Amino acid sequence: MTLERNEIEPRSQSRSVRKRAVILGSVLALVICAVTPYNNVYLQGTPLGGGHFPLAPFCAFLILTLVAYALAKLIGREILTGMELLVSWILMALVSGIAYTGLVRTFFINMTAPYHFATAGNRWAETLHPLLPKSWYPQNPDAVQLLYNGLDGGRDMGWMELIKNIPWSAWTTPLITWSVFILLSYFVMLCMVNIFARQWVDNERMNLPLLQVPLAMEEAVQNKNLGGFFGNPYLLAGLCIPVFLHILNGLHFYYPSVPDIPTLILAGPYFPKYGLFSAFHKLKIHLFPAYIGFAFLASRQISFSFWFFFILGGLFIGALSLFGLNIPAAALGVTFGPNITRPEETQMLGAYGIFFLFILWLARRHLADVVREAFGRKPVEWSGAQWFSTRHAFWGFVIGYAALILWNWYFGMPLIVSFLVIGAFFMIMLVASRIICQGGVAYFSLTMAPLDGMMSFFGPQFFSKMGVLIAGVSQKVLFLDLRESLMPSLFHASKISKRAGRPNMFLLGMTVTIILAVAVSFISMLALCYKFGIRELQLDWATRTTLAALQNVQTLVESPPDPGHWVHFFSILGAVVMLILVVCYHRFYWWPIHPIGYLTAYSSAMKVLWFSFFVGWLANSLCMRYGGVKLFNRLRLFFMGLIIGDFVMGGIWAIVGLFGDSSYMVLYN
Q1: Given Cys at both, which of 183, 298, 323, 487 links 440, Cβ 3.0 to 4.6 Å?
Q2: Which of 386, 428, 424 is nearest to 404 (CA)?
Q3: Hey, is 559 helix, strand or coil?
Q4: E strand or H helix at 264, and its extent?
Q5: Taken in order 404, 407, 410, 414, is the CA torsion positive or negative?
Q6: CA pair distance 183, 181, nearest whole angstrom
C-alpha cells in the first residue's frame, strides 16, 4: 500500500484524443439510453446496462475497435486511435445505467405511487398526503392514470407522435424539481471523484479489474497488434469456453430438445436446515465465466476475502443458532435496506462507518493537501487523473453539498438532519465505489441502506415527520439500488483520463453526456409507459420495492419504533470487527484478508458471485505458486477471453431476443 505521493507521470501527448471520440461516445451513449427502457422493460430482453461493466457499451466498443482496426489496415491511417475508442467506451459505460436501475427504473413509480396506490386500507391519504411536497409529484390525476393504463390508441402511435401527446404540463414541475436534486448529486460525485482520484489512482495505484480488458484492447490497438491480441492461443482458449457454453444453452432455451450445461447448481439440499451449516440450506452455485475472469484479475487477497467472508458470515449465523440464539427478524424493526433480512446482518452498519473512516485515514495527507490548496496555502498540484484542480473540486463539493442541504431544507427537512442525511448518502456511495472498483465487482448491491444507519444511531424521532419522508423518497430515487450507479464509473473514467490527455474536453464531454442522458432516459421511459401502461410492463419489482419504502415511511411517521437492542449490538460488533481488520491489514504485511470482503458478507450480490471469486482466487493462487509472473501473464489473457466471450454471447443473444417473445440471459440480471 503506497501512502506517500508518487511522482505523477506526464500525460502522453501521442494519446491525446480528438473531438470525434467524445462526440461518437456521447451519441452512442444517448442511443443506448433511448432504447434501454424498451429493451429491458417491454421486451424483457438481456439488460443493455446491467452492472458496472455494462453489456451494450462493451459490445459497441468491441465492434468499433474491430471496424476501426480493419479500416486502418485498409486505408493506411487511423480513423480512431485505441485511446479514442476507450474514451468512447467509458462515455457509454458512464450513463448506460441511468436509463434503467441507476435512475428511471423506479423513478416514475416513485413519483406517482403515493397517490395512485393510496387506499382506505393503507390510509396514505391521511398520513402521507399532507406531507408530500406538491412540486415533487404530478398533480393531474388523469396524467397519472394514463401513465399506468397507457394513452388511448398509444400502441398504434409512432414514437414521435406519442411523445407529443404525453401530458407534459403535469410533469414539467416534478421533472425540473427532481432534476435539480439528481444533477446536484451527480455534480457532488464528480467533485468527490476529482478529489480522491489522485489518492486512489496515483498514490495507492489501485488495481481496477473491471478496466483490464478495455485497457488491454486499447494497448493492442495503440501498438497495432490487435490481430495478435485476439489471435493469442490463451485468449482464444478462454473465449471458446463461454461461446460453446452459451451457444448450447441458448439453443436449449429456444429448443428444449437440445441438451444444456447447467450454470446454476442448487447446493442447499446438501446442507441441514438446523445447526452450524443452517445458513447454507438455500445455497446456490452460479457459473459465470466473465465474473470468474474479473475475480482472477483482482488481487488474490481481495478475491479470497470476498468468498471467505461469505462463508464465514453463514457460519456465524449457524453458530448463533447452534447456541440457541435464534433472533427473530422482527428485531430488525423498520429498515430500508434492499437485502437486509436478519438482525445479524446489521453488522454492516458499523462496518461501513469504520471503513469510511479508514478511507479518510489512508488519504489524510492527500486530503490535508487538498484543503491547503483550496485555501491558497499550497500551490495547486495536478494529477493526470483529475479533470480540474482540487481547489475547484473542493469548493465545488462544498457548494454542491450545501445546495443539496438547502434543497432538503426548502421542502421541510431540518438543517442538521439534512446535513447528516446527505453525508450518509455520499459516505455509502464512496465506500461502495471502493468495493466495486478495487474488487472488480461487476454486480453489486447494498446490504443496508444509508438511512438504516441513521435510524439506528439517532432514532427516528430525530428526523421529524417531514425529514423521514424526504429522506426515504430521495434515498429511493438515487442512493438505494447501486447496481448501476454513476460514481464507480466516474472513478474508472478518472483512470482513463490519466492516459487520455485533454482533461477539459473529457470533462465537457462527460458533463454534456450525463445531462443529456438524464433527459433522454426520462423521455424514453415516459414514452414507454404512456404507450403501453405500467400495468402491462411487468414492473413488479419496481412497484413492490417502492411501495415497501413508502410503507416504511408511513410506519416511521405514525408510530416510530426505537431501534432494537440486537441492532445496536450487531452494529457495534461490526464496527469492532472492521476496526480489527483494517488495523491488521494496514500494520501486518503478511495479513491475508482484505477488509472490503467483510462489507459484502451478507450482500445478495455475493450470493451470486461467491463461487466465481473462489474459482478466480484458486486459479490465481495456483498460477502464482507454480508458474510465477510468466505464467500469470499468459493465463491473464485466458481469463480475459472468458470475459470477452461471455459478453460477446450476451450481445448476440440480446439481438436474437429482439426478434422473439423472450430472451436467453447470459449475464445475471
Answers
A1: 298
A2: 424
A3: coil
A4: strand 264-266
A5: negative
A6: 6
